[in-house]
Amino acid sequence: MKRPENRVWRVLSSEYLARRPWFTVRREKVALPNGTIVPEWYIFEFPDWINVIALTREGKFIFISQYRHAIGQTRYELTAGVIDAEDASPEAAARRELLEETGYGGGKWELFMTLSPNPTNHTNMVYTFLATDVELMAPQHTEASEDIMVHLLSRDEVRELLDEGEIIQALHAAPLWKFFAERPR
Amino acid sequence: MKRPENRVWRVLSSEYLARRPWFTVRREKVALPNGTIVPEWYIFEFPDWINVIALTREGKFIFISQYRHAIGQTRYELTAGVIDAEDASPEAAARRELLEETGYGGGKWELFMTLSPNPTNHTNMVYTFLATDVELMAPQHTEASEDIMVHLLSRDEVRELLDEGEIIQALHAAPLWKFFAERPR
User: Fold this and answer.
1) Beta strands in B57-185 (DSSP E)
2) Model pTM greater than 0.90?
3) DSSP label at B71?
4) What count of Cα atoms within 13 Å lies in the side-chain half-sphere of residue B6?
5) Which residue of A has its CA nearest to B44?
6) What are the DSSP E strand ranges found in A69-148?
7) DSSP helix/strand/coil, B106
8) Looking only at Cα atoms, what is the longest distance across chain A?
9) Which residues in chain B touch residue A48, judged by CB atoms under 8 angstroms apart?
10) Partner residue facing B33 (CB), from A123, A147, A170
């Protein structure tokens, strides 16, 4: 389908409020096509992110769990991370993260989905990869700031987590529901 | 399934960097259970959000399109918004937003999905409602800062947008893929 008309805003002024790792924010004053001036629009600049739906040769889904400070909870999640300057490609970043966080690698990889965390105020995109036939290749090798548990789940267990609303991270729920929509039993 | 162990971080210090509408940020110094100290963790405080999968009596999906400044693009989206202090409930907020942005209302409503935009750094949750048998009840009534087009799409058109990767807002893609996973033809 044809994309809707792009009614672009005009930037009247733009300034950085903060430029830190994990926290780069700019504030812009913008004009809409209808003439309305919005004096404060906040934009968060992040590097692109990746996450992975990884399946072992035996058909198990590789999940992790990790404390998420903003909501104070720990849920089942996909392996996920940031594309670093050293990563040759989004897939390379995804392979690196899966290996670091879980010890799994190898197998066949494809780009499965591309999302925006929030096109209103996030500049970055998120790439989900589907990796099949991955194997345990190395011990988990996380940073000190990462406290990550690995869980191998069956297809039925993953579907149960989705049905129960336990996968609350939108960037993980979207590709997982897509997986099940495209691959009904 | 049982939720994973919650390995809570200890907050050593916390300060607000900004408290503006649409931009409230605090920085915290935290200690992980393994003793690692993270000196800077940024948390964005937002009110809870809603969005709506709305279907008319004729089975058309109500979509909107709206310029999204952080990525400079306009795509098809669900009706979405913020739960205001005056809203009696998330459903009341969702009904208000659908009426304001599209003029549609009435019908049967149910809570369809609950997501976190990003549990790492967003405090808020997002509630998706499924509204069926909605009807055109009033003219569109948007704010000056909203430049919104309404689109009535067939089920096949919505599935085509999903298949083509055109629904890039993760908070909309997740409930829409869930809808199609749960309701195959």
Assistant:
1) 61-68, 73-77, 79-82, 104-105, 108-115, 126-136, 149-153
2) yes
3) T
4) 10
5) A70
6) 73-77, 79-82, 104-105, 108-115, 126-136
7) coil
8) 59
9) none
10) A147
Mode of pairing for the β-strands spanning A79-82 and A61-68: unpaired
CA A41 to chain centre: 24
Please name the member of B40, B119, B168 whose beta carbon is closest to the beta carbon of A68: B119
CB A136 within 8 A of CB A54: no
List, in order, residues 6 or more apart from A82 with CB less than 8 Å away: A46, A47, A48, A49, A50, A93
Under a CB-based contact definition with an 8 Å cutoff, are residues B134 and B56 in contact?
yes
What are B173's two structure tokens?
A: 């893609």
Q: What is the ipTM metric for this complex?
A: 0.96
Give B94-130 pLDDT, tens digit per residue.
Answer: 999 999 999 999 999 999 999 999 999 999 999 999 9
Sorting pLDDT into bands at 50, 70 and 90, what band is A126? very high
Beta-carbon contacts of A86 under 8 Å, excluding residues fewer than 6 positions away, are none
CA atoms within 13 A on the CB side of A89: 8
Kindly calculate the radius of gyration of chain A based on its CA atoms and give it in whole angstroms. 19
What is the pLDDT, as a whole number, of residue A4? Answer: 95
Q: Please name the member of A8, A42, A171 whose beta carbon is closest to the beta carbon of B72.
A: A8
Which strands make up the sheet holding A37-45, listed edge to edge? A10-20, A23-31, A37-45
- CB atoms under 10 Å from CB of A137, counted, come to 13
Report the half-sphere exposure of A61 (CA within 13 A, side-chain side).
Answer: 21
Determine the Cα angle at B66 with ends B92 and A3, to 5°.
130
User: Residue B77 and residue B61: Cα distance in Å, rounded?
Assistant: 11
pLDDT score recorded for residue B142: 80
How close is the nearest chain A Cα to the Cα of B87, in Å? 22
